[in-house]
Design brief:
The complex is a heterodimer of chains A (about 200) and B (about 375).
Chain A lengths: L2 H9 L3 H10 L1 H12 L2 H18 L9 H23 L16 H8 L3 H12 L4 H8 L3 H20 L1 H32 L2
Helix pairs in contact in A: 1-2, 3-4, 3-5, 3-7, 4-5, 7-9, 8-9, 9-10
Chain B lengths: L3 H6 L6 H28 L3 H8 L19 H6 L4 H10 L2 E3 L6 E3 L2 E10 L4 E8 L3 H7 L3 E6 L3 E3 L4 E3 L2 E10 L9 E11 L9 E13 L7 E10 L2 E8 L3 E8 L3 E2 L8 E7 L4 E3 L3 E3 L2 E3 L7 E4 L11 E2 L3 E7 L9 E7 L12 H8 L16 E4 L3
Antiparallel strand pairs in B: 1-3, 2-3, 3-4, 4-8, 5-9, 6-8, 7-8, 9-10, 11-12, 12-13, 13-21, 14-20, 15-16, 15-22, 17-18, 19-21, 22-23
The chains are: A mainly alpha (about 200), B alpha+beta (about 375).
Chain lengths: ~200, ~375
């Protein structure tokens, strides 16, 4: 069935049409959530939350042409919720385990890992999802000029990474380590606040 | 050597863990719908129930109260510098609205109250009073308090304010739509409140992880006055009309010819207004307390009818029209404008006229810009025929 008809049926709360649509856009949803969360387990939660939230709100979708954009926005919101939740409850002593289910899409994950978080989503939306900078600025609620700058920088960083992947990985690991140190202090503040209430 | 495009052309595989959670969602949706349709069948057997189902609930935004003494908050005055007479005039015309507290939402003891809206077709400003934050936190950490996510751009006013005798923080939403939102209902969502200790960083100490939602109707009038014009600025841009409201303006251009688009747009930029009494209102960046202030929109330059911007530099465009907009941080009388002054788009925009060290200090070393002496930039004056 053509996509437009599927969307029309989904808006009328046809569960089969809705599930077919979500499956059709699953790769797009996966890539956007991955750019924010960077691990498959959290991405799985984000996509499940997104599917359920979209089903609940599908009747509010006024223009079927914007279904994909609407869906992507919800993926971003749900992924950020998970990110916030993880940061809220993360203990600085926790070391993320490497999971076996993180073994697929290695090239994509390595390329994304070479970029800071703020560059990853614009890159995915531009290169994979085919949005222009104006559309990305609306999806991410960022000025168009910021989106263009981020894409430019991301492109430069990706080129550097592709020229020498190991150097980039080392550099990024070092940056990440610095940030973790700072985050450690802040998490101590968080814990203090939770314990004392002020 | 591989390019970014090579990486991003590869097929993406949906990992098993992701597919299995999606399948679980699908099962849940199908089961829920099956349950719902059973209930619907029995529900619609009763005529009264049909009538209930057909009823439409209309949610309206909080009504504006007659603001005999309801002048603007500090945050609103920070956005639009208006004297009391101008504030009252904008309220009388409907361009500014001070809300009552009917839209207040309280979660986890934190109350957010929409306070006022100032709007026209090119800019919408909303202020929200945030109360209920522990006074110890307000005293020690007010500078770090932020929302985790706001569905529309905004920032906190820089100081604690007094709101009906209670210490409050005031959040200012600034929204510059590409097309007018007059008559529309804006949905705003504030998600999570806490302290972000690093500049522009994430919240690390949460006060509340709740979400506060608001639906606010933009019921301001379109107060623009349109002045016709016919003046070539530089090839291929000819001004055809100028729209000026007390709060913003737009210059419309015919674009007669081919435009090459690199990283920048080339549409002439609004630079200043010259008033009939000789005063000049500069629309450019400015310094306040030694720091650049960019809370107002510095303008958009947008091509219409055929924008096909791509990331690469070799794209060519064949637009037929364009416009430049600016919003003011003061209130003006459109009929008192004598000239509109434009400048060519420049690398430094919108950083013109601000010392480099201040930009570096405030925004870090990565901001790409080129300093241009504003006095040496060519300007183009367009008389306003009023």
């Amino acid at each position: 069935m053509e996509t437009k008809k599927l969307i029309e049926k989904a808006v009328q709360k046809d569960p089969d049409a809705f599930c077919s649509l979500i499956q059709m856009y699953a790769q797009d949803m996966y890539r956007v959530a991955l750019a924010i969360l960077m691990n498959d387990e959290d991405v799985a939660d984000a996509l499940q939350d997104t599917a359920l939230a979209c089903w609940e709100k599908i009747t509010t979708l006024r223009n079927p042409e914007y279904f994909k954009t609407w869906l992507i926005r919800i993926v971003i919101n749900k992924s950020r919720e998970i990110l916030r939740r993880n940061r809220r409850y993360a203990d600085i002593e926790d070391v993320p385990e490497t999971a076996t289910y993180d073994e697929c899409n290695i090239d994509l994950k390595e390329a994304l890992r070479s970029l800071e978080e703020k560059y990853r989503v614009p890159v995915i939306l531009f290169y994979y999802e085919g949005y222009d900078t104006g559309e990305i600025s609306k999806i991410l609620k960022l000025p168009d000029s910021t989106v263009r700058t981020r894409l430019q920088r991301a492109r430069g960083k990706l080129k550097e990474f592709l020229e020498d992947p190991k150097a980039q990985t080392r550099e990024h690991a070092s940056d990440h380590s610095d940030k973790q140190d700072k985050r450690g202090d802040l998490n101590a503040n968080t814990r203090r606040y939770i314990q004392t209430g002020n | 050597m591989r390019t970014p495009e090579d990486i991003f052309k590869q097929e993406t595989e949906i990992p098993d863990i992701v597919q299995s959670k999606l399948n679980a969602a699908f099962s849940s949706i199908k089961m829920e719908e099956a349950e719902m349709s059973k209930k619907k069948k029995s529900f619609f057997k009763r005529p009264a129930a049909v009538a209930t189902a057909a009823a439409v609930v209309v949610l309206t935004a909080g009504t504006a109260f007659a603001a005999a003494n309801g002048f603007w908050s500090q945050g609103a005055e920070d956005i639009i510098h208006a004297n009391e007479a101008q504030q009252q005039e904008l309220m009388n015309s409907g361009s500014a609205t001070v809300f009552d507290d009917s839209m207040t939402v309280t979660k986890d003891g934190i109350t957010i109250t929409p306070h006022e809206m100032i709007a026209d077709k090119r800019g919408v400003y909303l202020t929200f009073m945030v109360t209920g934050i522990d006074e110890n936190i307000l005293n020690e950490n007010a500078d770090y308090i932020n929302f985790g996510y706001v569905s529309c751009g905004g920032h906190f006013y820089h100081d604690v304010v007094d709101y009906n005798g209670i210490p409050a923080l005031e959040y200012i939403v600034t929204f510059y739509p590409d097309t007018s939102v007059i008559g529309s209902t804006l949905h705003l969502s504030f998600d999570g409140l806490g302290m972000a200790y690093e500049k522009a960083g994430d919240i690390t100490d949460y006060i509340s992880m709740s979400t506060w939602d608001f639906d606010i109707e933009v019921n301001a009038p379109d107060s623009s006055v349109i002045f016709e014009a016919d003046q070539l600025i530089y090839e291929p841009y000819t001004v055809t009309s100028i729209e000026i409201s007390p709060l913003s303006m737009q210059v419309n251009f015919d674009v007669d010819g081919q435009v090459e688009l690199g990283d920048d747009y080339n549409v002439p930029v609004l630079y200043a207004l010259k008033m009939k009494d000789g005063t000049v209102i500069n629309l450019d960046s400015k310094l306040e307390d030694g720091k650049p202030v960019f809370f107002r929109d510095l303008g958009k330059c947008i091509y219409k009818d055929g924008l096909t911007y791509t990331f690469d530099d070799d794209e060519r465009l064949f637009p037929v029209s364009a416009y430049s907009t600016a919003t003011f941080n003061t209130v003006i009388d459109p009929y008192e404008v004598a000239e509109v002054i434009l400048q060519p788009w420049g690398e430094a925009y919108p950083w013109r006229g601000i010392p480099e060290e201040i930009i570096r200090e405030e925004y870090g070393s990565e901001i790409p810009f080129e300093l241009i002496d504003p006095d040496n930039i060519e300007t183009f004056s367009v008389p306003v025929n009023n």
